[in-house]
Structures
1.
Amino acid sequence: MKLKITILEGDGIGPEVTREAVRVLRAIATLHGHEFSFDQRLIGGAAIKEHGSPLPTATLDACLAGDAVLLGAVGAPEFDSLPPAGRPEAGLLLLRRALGGFANLRPAISYDAISAASPLRPEVSRGANILIVRELLGGLYFGEPRGRSGENDNSVAFNTMSYSVPEIERVARVAFEAAMKRGKKVTSVDKANVLETSQLWRATVSQIGRDYPRVTLEHLYVDACAMHLITDPRRFDVLLTENLFGDILSDEAAAITGSLGMLGSATIGGDVGLYEPVHGSAPDIATRGIANPFGAMASAAMLLRYSGRLEREADDIDEAIQAVLNAGYRTLDISSNGSGYIATTSEIGELVAEAVAEIADVRHAYHAV
Ligand code: IPM
Ligand code: MN
């Protein structure tokens, strides 16, 4: 199988974690006889410095010409005082819109081997496995009008939260389809006691739910959901929500795993799939070899699953991640009270690449018998 993958390392720890994900993808290609080509481009702060724009035309063109995009992270403190449209993050939002993916899948899983890294008691977090389906192209991130008026003490700033029925329907279908393949439960999260957008959201999701009689649908207000996520995460299967609520709740859900560095994501529904870890650019720990590359690797696995339809290869990466964790290797962020062996970002990359090869060997041997 041939796959053209555009690599956007971005800022902060983006380059170091993405490199390890690419290492694992190369291992998969060699082991399984696939041809993956990697086209590396600039985005975010790195692109602003080089080209004066967070999403240069050459980057966007390369992304649209490929089969999938693997992104690290964007954001750098030196741009913090710029208005939203000039910041590194604007490059990512323009890219998301241009690629057209509206459903952002963010699995939050409790891994037994690192359950001690979670601030939640093991009896609360163990076994939790949530798929957050975050709407990615609507809501406050993209709503118009937006802006500022007035000066100084008379300044007013405003953003618009708006959703249309088709925008809600399409992402709701993704959530219900996913639930059919999992625990057959969808929790739709909104603020329908206050917001009109949420009332439309709730009514539309309920309507789509009628097409999936085998899936149990519940509605939760976002404030209550935030509480349930950390008091009883096992009550969730698929969690469906709008853009900003999904941004916030997915960071919170990382507490189940123990570190934001563990979570990967896939954005589907557009012309080209976009795969990025949920964590940010973490400039404070960049280039020190301590960044957690598991989220980037989990994103690479999702890339193979959704853009390559390579289910087995994707499963192999997920299994390799678990094997390396089970063997006791940890980056600093998931090494609770010094347990296990602390490994650098690139050591984890080597270990996962080796584990992927061992898994392929075992399967080969099994089939040869
Ligand atoms: C995320 C990030 C982005 C978002 C930022 C970097 C624009 O926080 O992917 O969760 O808010 O969507
Ligand atoms: Mn976020």
2.
Amino acid sequence: MSGLNRQSRFERGDDVVVMKFGGTSVEDSAAIRRLIGIVQSRQHHQPVVVVSALAKVTDQLLEAAHAAANGHLGSALATVRNIYVRHEALADSLVTGSAYGSLDRELRDEFRALESLLQDLQTSRHLDLALQDRLLGFGECFSSKLVSEALSEAGIKSAHVDARDCIFTDARHGQASPVWDSTNQRLQDTLSPLLQSARVPVLGGFIASTGDGVPTTLGRGGSDFSAAIVGAALGAARVEIWTDVDGVMTADPKLCADARVIRKMSFEEAAELAHFGAKVLHPATLAPAMRENIPVYVLNARRPEGEGTEISARARTGTSVSAITAKRNVVAVEVASSRGIDSALFNTVFGTFDQHACAVDVMGTSLGRISLLASSTAALPGIAADLQGVADVRWENHRALVCLVGENIRHQPDVARRVFAAVSDMDVRVLCQGASDRTISFLVEESKVEESVQRLHTLFFQKPELVRDWGGISSAFCQAG
Ligand code: ASP
Ligand code: MG
């Protein structure tokens, strides 16, 4: 391809492929070699690589941070030492010569900085979210440097780019949101020249910084979101999420052995699925992709020849229910007021939850009652006390939210009826069909999650002929979109 041709193609962004590799896709040298092969297979496009920390590293860094803050510096340093040894061994097996020398020095310097942060933390005993973001970011810093050098070693011209210099966020540490204009501008300014000179930029996912340069993170699992942010800024042709499963599944295969890959689904369906607890994508990922209409593919790095799942504007699953998810550890909260529910009460109630930094999802409202979901009971006694005299707050924990997602699910009354019938013998609470056209969800006791997901999966995903034998409910399978 001529230089001119390449440049004009890049300007439209239509040949850029952003490839995100999750923790298990960089976990050891075999995984990184697979990554190299996959990037090689896309070299005739313009790949941009986004990587997570090596599998388990973010959890270990968090563990080390808590240990140091609790005065157990020895254990914190031992954990970090293990992380260092793991990276060092990978550098040794993947990179040689002077490149190895400088990578080794960089890793060493970074680990010293990490150790000294932990030492300070043992003295201050104060771990706030800002410091936590700084500490957790080390995982992606290390992995991205390692992968960039490994690609170069394999003959793919690459360039390490520090994502904290390109992705800017607000200061909501632990779960920051991008500041789009400055982020888009900086990503274009930094990555375009690299792509034009046929280099593969390699960025750590998950990490970002405020405009003032304070490190932030995009929330756990945030590397997917990073990839979508980069893709949107460049107007990429596609974003590929490389992981260790064959794609987005009809249910969590750990809950349901019959779960199968969804070949195509819409942005909206996938976003609902991520929001309702499917682990495969960070919930914020699809918004930038949807805005720029960039298809997202979920692919298995262990089986790169597989088709994976295509998530795009037009794609439809073709079934009435596209997937069933379950969110565990849910607390069902009921706020009741004998004076009825009006907007003033709504304001007071949500203001109080807000003051206690307790994020809630609204399940529904009825006469004198608001049903909410929270992920922890920690703030609830304080909230109940503050609302005393205004409303009565009660809660039940150990619940799970089971959710059926499908493009048109709400306009098929038959689906809700069949869901209800399938779980009628369980203690089902708060069936919610109103909030979105694409979901029907309900609460069950946590111990019943597996059984309810399996029953619903059999009901909606069993082969049509089997289902037909089972009671004439095959029509749902004819909903091609
Ligand atoms: N390493 C981060 C985490 O474990 C981000 C990611 O993997 O997407 O949450
Ligand atoms: Mg993930």
